[in-house]
Design brief:
By secondary structure, the chain is mainly beta. The protein is built from 1 helix and 10 strands, in the order βββαβββββββ. A hairpin with a 4-residue loop joins strand 7 (68-73) and strand 8 (78-83).
């Protein structure tokens, strides 16, 4: 069963780009706002971008605003995170989940590693 499956990470030089994908179970994707989270070594997991289910309204953490773009494809039950102008401080494991209270979270997927380094 799908639940949440992230992909698209990798090693990229500073200033480069990556596009992450998150395939979600339809029951999760259809009615919930979705978010991309990241966790760097020694730090807490943080929400970096979110997208509403109906309006498609988006929100971003200040640290990524203007560089990252979140989108969703309802036909594919997939949420994307386009990351441009990557910085070393963007290095983290990236996860997707419901954007909402902790009690609404589904089991976390394996995440996808993003490493920004020259």
């Amino acid at each position: 069963q799908v639940q949440l499956v992230e992909s698209g990470g990798g090693l990229v030089q500073p200033g480069g780009s990556l596009r992450l994908s998150c395939l979600a179970s339809e029951s999760i994707f259809r009615v919930n706002a979705m978010g991309w989270y990241r966790q760097a070594p020694g730090k807490q997991r943080e929400l970096v971008a979110s997208i509403a289910s109906g309006s498609g309204g988006t929100g971003y953490a200040d640290t990524v605003k203007g560089r990252f773009t979140i989108s969703r494809d309802s036909a594919k039950n997939t949420v994307y995170l386009q990351m441009n102008s990557l910085k070393p401080e963007d290095t983290a494991v990236y996860y997707c989940n419901i954007a909402g209270p902790v009690v609404m979270f589904r089991p976390w997927g394996q995440g996808t590693q993003v490493t920004v380094s020259s």
